[in-house]
Amino acid sequence: MKESGSTRNQILVLLKTKGPLTVSDMAEHLGVTEMAVRRHLNTLERDQLVTSQLLRQSMGRPTSQYFLTEKSEEFFPKNYHTFTLDLLEDLEERHGEEIIEELFRSREKRLTETYQDRFKGLNLRERVEELAKLQDSKGYMVKWEENDQDSFTLIEYNCPIAQVANRYNQACSCELNWFRRLLDAEVEQYTCKAKGGQNCIYYIRPKAEQEA
């Protein structure tokens, strides 16, 4: 891959993981000149992969922030075929919404059974790390961090099933439920890409002790 192409890819990944950034922000992260960043942004804007918005500051001149367009989603990993939505919609039309609920419940059960052995014997921190590795291998672009009081935050910067999740939120519920089962922990979803969030963010903590 040519260096220029590689830098453009780095800019796309940077905007995906860091959110809207200015030219100076990107130059600092990538270790290149602002002129070089602007040159690549011109190409990305021409290809309709990024767009800009004027950012007014309390001091100094306004500057532009750059962010990804919907078209840029084609650049990031996707592990499903477009006919999936057609199949689900046909099933819903023929058999009603209950069949969709049943399909996602079956998927949740299958995912839990498929991966549960990988989580046996691990403490919560190790289970969170294992889940992050698992989801990252599927193209979710995952980052996790340990908070205070034995709690954790897990962030998914990409959603390989975004189009399905946008139409059928059951996909998100399915993911949340099998996270809870594999981690054997309390898991709350703070933001969801399918519901307008920039990323899917999960807060994880040990289960509350059962009262006697």
Automatic annotation (TrEMBL):
Keywords, sorted A to Z: DNA-binding, Transcription, Transcription regulation
HTH deoR-type domain segment(s): 4-64
GO molecular function annotation: DNA binding; DNA-binding transcription factor activity
Gene3D superfamilies linked to this entry: Winged helix-like DNA-binding domain superfamily/Winged helix DNA-binding domain
A UniProt-annotated Pfam family: HTH_5
CDD domains linked: HTH_ARSR
Domain of life per record: Bacteria
Coiled coil: none
InterPro entries: ArsR-like_HTH, DeoR_HTH, HTH_ArsR_DNA-bd_dom, WH-like_DNA-bd_sf, WH_DNA-bd_sf
Protein name: Predicted transcriptional regulator, ArsR family
UniProt organism field: Thermoflavimicrobium dichotomicum
